[in-house]
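User: Just a sanity check before I run the rest of the batch. Below are the structure tokens for the first item. I only need the designed sequence back.
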């Protein structure tokens, strides 16, 4: 069942010398990065078999999943869990997603603690009297994004003391009351934001 359909040749692409085309019977069957092509250990007598096709297909899928994950991270910081959900939504196989995320983590592209710190810093910058955020709310959002609870609590504690949180709640309450909201409605809004 390892029927071969021709010899495999390689050619470096002129438009992108970091990429290698795999050619069988004069037809390009895949384009891979140098490292991926090298990992196949292709020799001058390598034949295109079903087994080699499966290996090449897996490498191509990993490359596409990596590109998709990097595009997601180009927009904003993502946790490993968020990237996993995003790649699964794009219909990548579980093994492909796991391998891709492991490689990105090894390469330093994924760091949940840094992602949590970046989100907390952004929330701190954008918190206003009209849109306050409590420590409880921040921790809950981080945990929902896949951050470990202890890491989430540490990140939030670095920027939000209980005095800061209290001052934020007081400012939000005063702003809501000045805007004509009832005390009950203002307190309900604060409660939804995690203020006790």
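Assistant: Here's the designed sequence for the first item:
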């Amino acid at each position: 069942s390892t029927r071969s359909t021709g010899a495999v040749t390689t050619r470096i692409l002129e438009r992108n010398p970091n990429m290698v085309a795999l050619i069988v019977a004069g037809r390009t069957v895949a384009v891979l990065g140098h490292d991926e092509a090298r990992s196949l250990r292709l020799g001058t007598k390598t034949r295109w078999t079903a087994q080699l096709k499966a290996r090449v297909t897996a490498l191509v899928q990993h490359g596409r999943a990596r590109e998709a994950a990097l595009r997601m991270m180009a927009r904003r910081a993502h946790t490993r869990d968020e990237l996993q959900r995003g790649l699964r939504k794009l219909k990548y196989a579980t093994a492909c997603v796991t391998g891709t995320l492991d490689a990105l983590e090894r390469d330093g592209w994924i760091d949940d603690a840094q992602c949590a710190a970046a989100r907390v810093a952004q929330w701190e910058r954008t918190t206003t009297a009209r849109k306050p955020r409590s420590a409880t709310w921040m921790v809950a959002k981080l945990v929902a994004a896949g951050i470990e609870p202890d890491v989430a609590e540490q990140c939030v504690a670095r920027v939000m003391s209980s005095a800061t949180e209290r001052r934020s709640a007081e400012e939000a309450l005063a702003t809501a009351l000045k805007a004509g909201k009832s005390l009950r409605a203002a307190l309900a809004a604060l409660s939804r934001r995690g203020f006790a």
